């Protein structure tokens, strides 16, 4: 099972790019939890913590596709490193000044979110030029999703470890300093410096010209909502069950479950169209989120969150492939960044909604928000099936060698049928 992954990682630059991207994304992956813990330590309530996290998420949602489009136009180093530095400085400001003046803290959260570098979309844009073959690129998407879940498993533990060793303030500073180092490692690498996007048609909608992209954005908005609500609900659950590391147990179990699911999913090639497979995975994902509202004891809840995460990485890996098939030519980084954006917006909305839910109905109500998010994500995919129909293989299969951006985009705009191109 691990042989295929090992072969990919032995490819020149692959391990460095993957590791650098994961480290660079640490602030984005753990920032909301760090903000919640910091706000609570400073005397703020769950509503304020949720709103601050939401502001960060909305800023991230706006910035990711815009920065992704800038990367497609100007290259990765000129955009990603300055953005990473600005984001880290803004996120570190509340750690220095506290929660007052509140308007300045809101502004800092917005700037930190907006300038979060699109490392995730940038990595997926780099895979074709690094791996050369389409089958390896698709395997790399699965590996990427698996490695991402390692980040989500380890990240919360890193945050709470920083809190235990130092304080919530230092947790904010440390994770953002590490993030800048990760971004630096990526942008100074030869593949990142040499990468250029394929020529694109000038259009203000960019990647959003594809109806399939719009469906994915809508569906994964609700997946993000579920994950965002789980992050806050887990802290509330921990407050009622001993505090301390309990929230990290739950969030880490969610990541470990997704890690295991992703390893199994990425170990083989799956038959059929990925669009159809994505709907099946979304069904299983929803079935995992709904039982969280039962909120049993710590051991039972940890097991439930682990099971809830099993189909997250497979759903993400499959979604990456679907994005690759439906994104218009020349919008590769922007298209992947839009998928990341759905998590930012959805997570922000989830964190905002779950605060009042927790204060009125306790942790069970918070986890019920997560279950509703999973169900709505599935309903979007099922109700819009005709807009995310499978792309004919002739339109998406690349030749054995692919260039800096998937060659399949040279002849046909994925996601657009004959006579329906933008």
Automatic annotation (TrEMBL):
What is the annotated localization of this protein?
Cell membrane
Q: How does it sit in the membrane?
A: Multi-pass membrane protein
Positions of transmembrane segments: 46-67, 79-97, 139-166, 172-192, 213-237, 249-266, 278-295, 301-323, 335-358, 364-382
Tell me where in this chain the Major facilitator superfamily (MFS) profile domain is found.
212-422
Query: Does the keyword field hold Signal?
Result: no
- Gene3D superfamilies for this protein: MFS general substrate transporter like domains
The protein's name in its UniProt record: Major Facilitator Superfamily protein
- Keyword check for Membrane, yes or no: yes
Query: Mind giving the lineage of the organism this protein is from?
Result: Bacteria, Bacillati, Actinomycetota, Actinomycetes, Kitasatosporales
Q: Which UniProt keywords apply?
A: Membrane, Transmembrane, Transmembrane helix
